[in-house]
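Notes, Module 5: Reading structure tokens.

Key idea: the token line is not a picture. It is a compressed description, and you learn to read it the same way you learned to read a sequence, by spotting repeated patterns. We will look at two proteins. The first is printed below with its tokens.
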Amino acid sequence: MQVDGKVAVITGAGGGIGAGLARALVAGGAKVVLTDIDKDAVAGVAASLPSDTVAFASGDAGSDDHIEEVVTLAESTFGPVDYYFANAGIGGGPGLQATDEQWDAALNVNILAHVRAARRLVPGWVERGGGYFVSTASAAGLLTQLGSATYSVTKHAAVGFAEWLSATYGTRGVKVSCLCPMGVDTNLLRPKEQAPAGSDEALMQRAVTSAGRVLTTDEVATAVLDAIADERFLILPHAEVLDMYRHKGSDYDRWLRGMQRYQNTLMDN
């Protein structure tokens, strides 16, 4: 599928990867509907794009009502949705200290938002004979995320759901891709407030920034568009993640020992 002339919805589009995707899609000829829980942020991204290419709304990406609102906005403004980028994501909470509320929030945004969007769109795509679901997961969904159980577990779930969606609907016209980058220069990686020294939050940040090059959001967006043009399932802007994933699968215990050593090294610094 090519994006020229297509209609795309992007969640988490108030900044980061979502904003990068918006710029890349519009440059490729698509019409985009942006949504983010931060109304001012998503309005700012929308204002930076040609007015005839963009519409936006604000709300919870995991809410059925908001998903319906956004799909209806896309259909009434540009036409049926061709691409849905389930991109919104949050970190949740650190380690075992994460509260039930933080777990609920991470589950809602990082995985249930994908499930609810697919529930709304996939039956129509099957009837139309085409549609594309792009899930933003993380390398943490293939490997793990030191410092954050909420992030690691929900990103694993996002990968698992994308796999299931492709296996179940891939022969019925529904294409699926799953984005799994390591470090990307976003507010999630570099929050405004410095994490306390020695905290799980600080460990999480060091684990990501020391694992490989931190990419720009535009670099990631380019990798996404290249992948969906080829209809590739796994999108790996950091190519080395594939080798890491293979090492994990070839000897799980050895990989876990290596992660334990890596964590100790980070804690010692």
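Here is the second protein, with the sequence above and the tokens below, as before.
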Amino acid sequence: MVTSELEKITINMPPVDLGQIDLLVREGFYQNRTDFIRTAIRNQLNTHADAVRQTVVRKELVLGLQHYSRRDLEALREAGEMLEIRVLGLASIADDVAPELALEAVRSVAVLGAFRASPAVKKALADRIQST
């Protein structure tokens, strides 16, 4: 996995839980705290994989990476259509997309994961971005 594909999260944990993680790291079960946490998250995602798949289908989400270029949005605008971005993963709008074009081509943004766009485009679409 490329570092640019990672999103940083911060968690608060009780000292006893953190101590147990440190013990497992020290005993060689995991390389470090991050390795432990990633493994725990993957295990939980595997446990709930069927529920995730069913929800993706039911809510008509794109699973994975979805990038929208200036050309994509211009084509939508010219066709008189508007985009409803619905992604589980990463959705991005190219840096060369002007806020005006985004307003003319994007009806709504619903992303479970990460949404990347220029600050100006995010500001322009602020009222169309659904909180997750």
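Summary for the second protein:
- The chain has a mean pLDDT of 94.
- The longest strand covers residues 83-93.
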